[in-house]
Amino acid sequence: MKTPPDHYLALVKKGQDIYTLKSISTLLGWDQETYMPQKGLGLRSLQKQYLESLIHKEVTSESLQDLLSPLIHLETGKLTHVEGLSLEQQGAIKLWHKEVVKAKKLPDLFVETFAKAASETVAVWAEAKKASDFPVFLPHLEKMVSLSKQRADYLGYEDHPYDALLDEYEPEMKVATLDKLFAGLKPFLIDLTKKCHKTSLDTHFLYGEFDEQKVLNLDHLLLKAIGFNEGAYRLDVSMHPFCVGCHPTDVRMTALVKTNDLLSGNLLTVLHEGGHGLYEQGLDTTFFGTPICEYLSMGIHESQSKFWECFVGRSLPFWKHFYPLLQKNFPQNFSSVPLNTFYQSINLVKPSLIRIYADEVTYSLHVILRYELEKSLIEGSLAVKDIPHVWNEKMSTYLGITPPTAREGCLQDIHWAWGLFGYFPSYVLGNLYAAQFHHTLRSTYPDSDERLAQGQLSFMTDWLRKHVHRYGKLYSPDDLVRRATGSPLSEKFFKNYLTQKYQ
Amino acid sequence: MKTPPDHYLALVKKGQDIYTLKSISTLLGWDQETYMPQKGLGLRSLQKQYLESLIHKEVTSESLQDLLSPLIHLETGKLTHVEGLSLEQQGAIKLWHKEVVKAKKLPDLFVETFAKAASETVAVWAEAKKASDFPVFLPHLEKMVSLSKQRADYLGYEDHPYDALLDEYEPEMKVATLDKLFAGLKPFLIDLTKKCHKTSLDTHFLYGEFDEQKVLNLDHLLLKAIGFNEGAYRLDVSMHPFCVGCHPTDVRMTALVKTNDLLSGNLLTVLHEGGHGLYEQGLDTTFFGTPICEYLSMGIHESQSKFWECFVGRSLPFWKHFYPLLQKNFPQNFSSVPLNTFYQSINLVKPSLIRIYADEVTYSLHVILRYELEKSLIEGSLAVKDIPHVWNEKMSTYLGITPPTAREGCLQDIHWAWGLFGYFPSYVLGNLYAAQFHHTLRSTYPDSDERLAQGQLSFMTDWLRKHVHRYGKLYSPDDLVRRATGSPLSEKFFKNYLTQKYQ
Does residue B229 belong to the interface with chain A, where contact is any CB pair within 8 Å? Predict the structure, then answer.
């Protein structure tokens, strides 16, 4: 065991302080969506502003740079001191340096302006969506696009301004790579959608009134089954399901318990958020306070949720074990429905207007559409006012349907209102990563279907912990995937998975 | 309207920042007692330490003193600039100055040592209480007493070291005043307890299984009835009921909803915490960020909870209106019980071992006992090892009963483990203040019993808001009581109230 030099230990102490502040901010966000009294919003805004500004101040502080400078060359980003430092410690220094450099590229005033505009735009978006009124949203969205272009300029890029934004969610990802991946994926998905879109199935048994306590018990049973650390998480109720990790010992997820759609509305959502949560729990606390104990990227995060929700939670072997339990708990819905019918009913492919309700096949087309629009907006080849038209055209081309209103079209997502350009691709990348992990896992364990059918899930959890979770930000997503699966990221694994499942 | 000078406005901005930090700390404390996953305690400790240290740093910062110095003489505490400043603004400056002076008296290292020792002592106390083992607790309690003496020395005092500690909870209160108040109260209470202690009443109807949702509905109905601002509070479940105010628009209370003791276990607790919460909601947000928008003292806080729990919630007129509702909701318990029997059953006087379960008459004797011990410990006339003996002796003299174990005796409260010497008197002061407010209110509204019997409570809420809540810390407790009631604080109002009710 090497002994890290004092400089490094002082840096970790500072890192822990910054992590602590971020974790408080995370908790405030969770509280706002779950328990905060509605009139407490004014105070909450002050609290969040104060913390965000303090975090920014700490990250860009002279004192952090003074701690970094004996270890890394601040200009070149080359390590100047590696003796006694492990691979993880060297990685942490580089990642801290990257964060500092990035934070310093964005002027304080710009960060403030961006946050204020986003906050206003979200409020306008909510009204515009309600009224299905794009023109009301237009000037605000134009401002967010313009600010995002400015953001890309501040952050800097080599080939495409969108690369700068992508990097915030998916380190080192580029437009060139995405274009290649999506070019291989899009025609395949359009084609598969057409092929699948003929099944007609009576799925009424999925809906009904479900006893809330029974639903909650099943939720916790599923979380335990996929390997959750008890006493280190919460599952609460909120309008929209989400998961945040304050720390591997304090992970908070939400789902609707009162729902008339038991699978998509609750159980599969809990597996989805559970996948996110398991990733947070799997980060290595040995490196607490360093970026090695932080999640790698939005795409990798999404791969974990998709893995459990789709690759496991929508699979036949999984339900071979769990379906009898579902039947026992809700006999009025499921006792007379055979497993195979149930399995088909939760895997129906049907083009639909709303991304978050889309199936495994069409989902990525929704996202690719958004990526294409974002890229054009940021490079300036698409005017914001033309979004509704282009959106509808693409929906028609990709899925054969056209949104009757903007609410069901380009106003459906909150992301652009927040200025989160560059985020959407994570959702497809999540599918691609998950498929690649899933393929490797099944090759490693040829009996994985049998294990799943017996309710054994821990071999999967263990594999993900070992090959994904514990590394945090140590490797780039691309490196992590190569190390874990032996191949560079490719869309072929997802295509193979879908082909096998749906053809 | 006077225009405050820029110096003052800059000070308010700083005050708002410090308030914001404190409100975050409050929220973390609430979360810890309600929803935090048990294993999240480690992170929570880091978060709280970080915030407490930051608050201390801000309060003792040069920058705060620089903001104060044009407005107040830092040495003498005399205002140097009053032009354009309202009474509240002048008060705020003096109070900020007092806080800074106090914070600077306590060395950083001492604050840290105290907090660490308290945290350890609380853990030992929990174990010692479980095992009813005072000797295990002894060395730790000795340390807390010794640190509290040191604290009194740091803070400074004129007559009695305990005065320094008292001032932290009840500004300007002195041992001399308390001794006089309690000397007038103690023999009266001992005597009244003996006189009352003969009633025998079958109260089994108070206990049973109560539908949780119905209980919760009643809770919110009561909170609404006493004037709660909807959408600006929460009522949750925790092991021990409490109330914290993050801000007048975000007040958080807890109570047990699942209880077999509907009155003491829930409804009267909700009125108690509701009294605290109503005070927090009644602070004047015009002065947000200044001490004028902060509660005055623990005694005044307790007066508000006692007012609603006891002076209203245990009164006959109140239940004239609400008892039929109780009967309607829980007919199996109350339908055949006459109002008068119910009223007597919730006002039984009977000496008991545990303070928090004590009735209105004996409660203050429990507290006076603790005050007498604390005072002797701090002045050094009582050794910590002699506590159990003296405790039992006093219990026998005051209430005629002796605890069979330390768990039911001197180990029952958490306060000393936290080093909260000086806090206990607030509980009796709360009764005295409440009685005095109650007396004035009834003199102002001679028909108050009739109003209560009709379910009208808002005239009381309005009076309390007008005469107590809105002033925050502007006046000392003594001044506030004089202004609100026309008389200095006296025990006679409480004695009169008890005499009328129990004789």
Answer: yes
A 261-320 → B contacts, CB under 8 A: none
Question: Regarding the domain delimited by A204-347+429-467, which CATH topology (the fold level of the hierarchy) does it fall under?
Answer: Neurolysin; domain 3 (1.10.1370)
Gap from A85 CA to chain B (nearest CA, Å): 26
Answer whether B42 touches A (CB < 8 Å). yes
Look-up: residue for tokens 């029974």? A214
Domain with CATH 1.10.1370.30 in chain A: 204-347+429-467
Tens-digit pLDDT string for chain B (503 aa) = 567 788 899 999 999 999 999 999 999 999 999 999 999 999 999 999 999 999 999 999 999 999 999 999 999 999 997 888 999 999 999 999 999 999 999 998 999 899 999 999 999 999 999 999 999 999 999 999 999 999 999 999 999 999 999 999 999 999 999 999 999 999 999 999 999 976 678 999 999 999 999 999 999 999 999 999 999 999 999 888 999 999 999 999 999 888 899 999 999 999 999 999 999 999 999 999 999 999 999 999 999 999 999 999 999 999 999 999 999 999 999 999 999 999 999 999 999 999 999 999 999 999 999 999 999 999 999 999 999 999 999 999 999 999 999 999 999 999 999 999 999 999 999 999 999 999 999 999 999 999 999 999 999 999 999 999 999 999 999 999 999 999 999 999 999 999 999 98
Q: Is the pTM of this model over 0.90?
A: yes
Query: Max Cα separation, chain B?
Result: 69
Angle between helices A6-34 and A41-59 (to 10 degrees): 160
Architecture of the domain delimited by B106-198+211-503: Orthogonal Bundle (1.10)
Reported ipTM? 0.92
Q: Which two tokens stand for residue B334?
A: 């109350």
Nearest C-alpha neighbor of B501 from the set B308, B397, B365, B359: B359
Say which of B20, B21, B46 has its CB closest to residue A20. B46
Interface contact A39-B249, CB threshold 8 A = yes
Of A17, A31, A42, the CB nearest to B50: A17
Angle between helices B298-306 and B477-485 (to 10 degrees): 40
Substitution target in B22, B247, B280 with the highest count of A β-carbons within 10 Å is B247
**Which tokens sit at B143?**
């340390």
HSE (CB half, 13 Å, CA atoms) of A250? 24
